[in-house]
Design brief:
Number of domains: 1
Low-confidence stretches: none
Largest sheet: none
Number of strands: 0
Structural class: mainly alpha
CATH architecture: Orthogonal Bundle
Number of helices: 5
CATH superfamily: MazG-like
Mean pLDDT: 95
CATH class: Mainly Alpha
């Protein structure tokens, strides 16, 4: 992962953390936090399925878009669960 990718991940994570700490009216992220982990989990699953479908169709751009959605929703789940980027990175290093 290059520095730009790392920065994008850290920036997105920071934005999601800020939304949790400082809710904004009309924010989709705050909507997810308000609905709780079950809703967030359903969105993660939904986006994973949509990414699989797009990939199965050979739709590269659609797969990229769905993976971006999956990445975002996964980070919302991480923030909701109190999981840091570093914890996930450490787990990946073990593998």
């Amino acid at each position: 992962m290059d520095n730009n990718s790392t920065n994008v991940s850290k920036d997105l994570y920071a934005i999601i953390m800020d939304r949790k700490a400082n809710p904004v009216d009309g924010s989709y992220t705050n909507y997810l936090f308000d609905k709780g982990i079950e809703k967030i989990g359903k969105k993660v699953g939904e986006e994973a399925i949509e990414a699989i479908i797009a990939a199965s169709k050979g739709d590269k751009q659609g797969t990229i878009e769905e993976l971006a959605d999956l990445y975002y929703h996964t980070m919302v789940m991480m923030v909701q669960m109190g999981i840091t980027l570093e914890e996930v990175e450490e787990e990946l290093k073990k593998r």
